[in-house]
Amino acid sequence: MLRTRGWIHAWLLLSPAFVFLIAFTHYPALTTLWNSFFTTPRGRRPRRWAGLDNYDTLIADPVFWKVLGNNLIYALGTIPLSIVIALAMALWVNRQFTGRSFVRMAYFTPTVLPMIAVANIWMFFYTPGFGLIDQIGSALGFGQTNILGSADSALYGVMAVTIWKEAGFFMIFYLAALQTIPVSLTEAARIEGAGSWTILRRVTLPLLMPTTLFVSINAVVNSFRMVDHIFILTGGGPDNASSLLLFYIYEVAFRFWDTAYAATLTVVVLIFLMGLAIGQFFLFDRKVHYR
Amino acid sequence: MLMTKFKAAAAALAFAAAPAAADVDLQFYFPVAVGGAAADTIEELTAQYIAENEGVNIEAIYAGSYQDTVAKALTAARGGNAPQLSVILSVDMFTLLDEDLLLPFDDFATSEDDKAWLNSFYPAFMENSKTDGKTYGIPFQRSTPVLYWNKEAFAAAGLDPNTPPTTWDETIEMGKKLTLRDDAGNVSQWGVRIPSSGFPYWLFQGLTTQNNAILANADGNEVNFDDPKVVEALQYLVDLSKEHEVMAPGIIEWGATPKAFFEGQTAMMWTSTGNLTNVRDNAPFDFGVAMLPGHERRGAPTGGGNFYLFKGASDEQAKAAFDFVKWISEPEQSAKWTIATGYVAPRPATWDTETMKSYAADFPAVLVARDQLEHAVAELSTYENQRVTRVFNDALAAAITGQKTAEAALKDAQAQADEILQAYR
């Protein structure tokens, strides 16, 4: 009797979270999967069962492979770099010096700005002819650049914005973690005769590992999720050179109105992200905690 | 806010006229692509109509960009709440037909008077409104690209400031004189600027039309992307940068184009007539506006939005919506709209009003777009329009950035477009 009541209690307490999780995460994920097996319904043609046709289309779709490749370059380029920069900035502003609060604020500002505003600022930096980069360049005697307008550099132009935006955000986590490391540990190491480099490598970094795991998972998720700036900067162009998976899904769903194919792409991204998350937790989780 | 005021005003009128028949309520979605004045003008006109017509309530809903508006209309229609009336890109007609959402205007134009009205628009605009002999769109906020040139830069280069190029060859010839380089060889002023970001197909369609090519058929299920004349036009566009070096290389941003013109980065630019007021207000030098240069012929695409009637409306609603569209396209209302925005008035009758005549006398540049209509063709529009134009845009971008040759890029685009359109043949 008491046990049943305990159960009811537990379920009641869980239910609000459960309802939202199911309504906004699990149910949409399942309908997405279900929709990916049908054709897109149009007013004149109702949807019909398509089996794996959409997946065949996906495998034969050169744009899909292109944006997947772009997304890998984007992830490999932005994740390590923004983490390293974040760590360097955090170590720097963790020390005592005059103007520390100002530097901290300056580092964190990109995070506070909305992505669309950031993209517009960078749009001005990149504008050929009279943008900031070209104004500085022409003062130094260089010619015009067209970073976002050439297929070779557009993706890197987009990546620079991401790193600029992300590094400050991750810095906050590192800064918080650094402040939890007891001073006594570094002092003890110093008494034992360890130099700064050794302290960083053998004491600070291992103690920061849980934060690094957290930050890297966030960075991976963001590298598939943050596409707002692409709308402003390049629109995925030229010729899909700077398009990413999520941006492509948006286009297929809300510009081409091919909802079934968009669902198929979403399923692939879901599987991809699930794999990454599971891998990260299972592989790294054992190693991150300093014992 | 404004909406509730309209309703209150309309309700007050309805009460005054009581006991009138039950009110007709309409929802009307409109996009704004050119800034604040446009939204105010639409709301003003709607309010005026409501005040003049008892028993009709029109809820004018600002729905964002063109892209947002079609997305909202489609989503609302899927949820069974389609608006009765909306302004949407003229090129989205086939998409909306494919979703089975449109009512033809012909069903409501029963009187002789109405039929005459349907035929009173510039034919160039109606090309994007008709298919299968029915009219689904009524031109409203329509534009066309024109050439703007900097008269001071022309004079400085030793050219006649009042003579813009009229052919492709003259563009190159004058462009070479207008392209200025410093001692190190870095360009400080380009000859011409034809923006190619986002929707390069639109301005490119100027070139293809001038080369006597038509990109899509009237049924919206065939395209001619790999027509040798289209390849030639693309080669010309690529060569402006590559061969003749009179235009900046790579993709050229559409949004930054007027600014580049004001800054003296380019002596000529191609852009929409929708920028006319912007250039008039901001160019720090004397400028001219001309038709796009020709080649085999003069030519330009049209662009912009049409009125559409949506299925799901009751008979009274559809009739009221039809009547509203007819009213707003009348010369006086249309003149007001054109002056407020810079869009090209879609009926010759509008240009004959005193308001328009005095406006044009004061600012003759507005007539260029109207005169160019004689040479204009339908904007590229097919079934699955966004997808087909995307394929085409990608091909143009690939050629402009040197990833593919013009011919190879367009061949690929043709093959992809054929595959997409297969289902509609």
Automatic annotation (TrEMBL), chain A:
Span-the-membrane segments of this chain are: 7-27, 72-93, 105-125, 154-178, 199-221, 260-284
Q: Which UniProt keywords apply?
A: Cell membrane, Membrane, Transmembrane, Transmembrane helix, Transport
Q: Which InterPro entries match?
A: MetI-like (IPR000515), MetI-like_sf (IPR035906), UgpAE/MalFG_permease (IPR050809)
Q: Which domain of life is it from?
A: Bacteria
- Principal cellular location given in the protein's record: membrane
Which species expresses this protein natively?
Tritonibacter horizontis
Mind telling me which CDD domains this protein's record contains?
A: TM_PBP2
Cell location = Cell membrane
| Protein family according to the UniProt entry | Belongs to the binding-protein-dependent transport system permease family.
Q: Which GO terms describe its biological process?
A: transmembrane transport
GO CC annotations on file: plasma membrane
Which gene holds the coding sequence for this protein?
A: lacF_2
Q: Which Gene3D superfamilies match?
A: MetI-like
Tell me yes or no: is Mitochondrion among this UniProt entry's keywords.
Answer: no
Q: How does it sit in the membrane?
A: Multi-pass membrane protein
The record places domain ABC transmembrane type-1 at: 68-278
The protein's name: Lactose transport system permease protein LacF
TrEMBL record, chain B:
Species this protein is from = Tritonibacter horizontis
Compartment annotation: Periplasm
Which InterPro entries does the record match to this protein?
Bact_solute-bd_prot1 (IPR050490), SBP (IPR006059)
**What CDD domains does the record point to?**
PBP2_UgpB (cd14748)
Name by which UniProt lists this protein: sn-glycerol-3-phosphate-binding periplasmic protein UgpB
Q: Respond yes or no to whether keyword Signal is given for this record.
A: yes
The record's family statement is:
Belongs to the bacterial solute-binding protein 1 family.
Q: Which UniProt keywords apply?
A: Signal
User: Where does the signal sequence lie?
Assistant: 1-22
Q: Give the principal location in a single coarse category.
A: periplasm
The GO cellular component terms are: periplasmic space
| Classification via Pfam families | SBP_bac_8
Lineage runs: Bacteria, Pseudomonadati, Pseudomonadota, Alphaproteobacteria, Rhodobacterales
State the encoding gene. ugpB_2
